[in-house]
Design brief:
mainly alpha, single chain, 108 residues, two-stranded antiparallel sheet, 56% helix, elongated
């Protein structure tokens, strides 16, 4: 169906849903960032404790896995809440099975 110079691809007879702008937040989702940071801390712990890779190689691998620069990964992991996550991992000393059960879609 054509209207003027524009081609109308979809005809929608329903009223558009109103979006409550007070609920919608701009920017990044903090819950998703926390989940990413938890996984990043786990990957760092795993690489350091279950592989023989050097730290510079580990940060390069994390950079590939998380699409962040090695410097940014270090900055993120040095934040207080992420240092707590790393310290918890060091104290608990989980084995590979823990990581495989928590994140089965990753290669551990």
């Amino acid at each position: 169906m054509r209207t003027g110079k524009n081609l109308l691809l979809f005809a929608n007879n329903e009223e558009p849903e109103e979006v409550d702008e007070t609920v919608r937040r701009e920017g990044r989702n903090s819950k998703l960032m926390d989940m990413r940071n938890e996984l990043m801390a786990a990957r760092l712990y795993w690489y350091r404790n279950f592989t023989d890779k050097r730290d510079d190689v580990i940060y390069d691998l994390l950079s590939i896995e998380f699409f962040l620069t090695p410097i940014r990964i270090q900055e993120v992991l040095l934040e207080d809440e992420n240092m707590v996550k790393l310290q918890k991992l060091k104290n608990e000393r989980p084995d590979t099975k823990v990581f495989k059960s928590r994140w089965p879609h990753w290669v551990w």
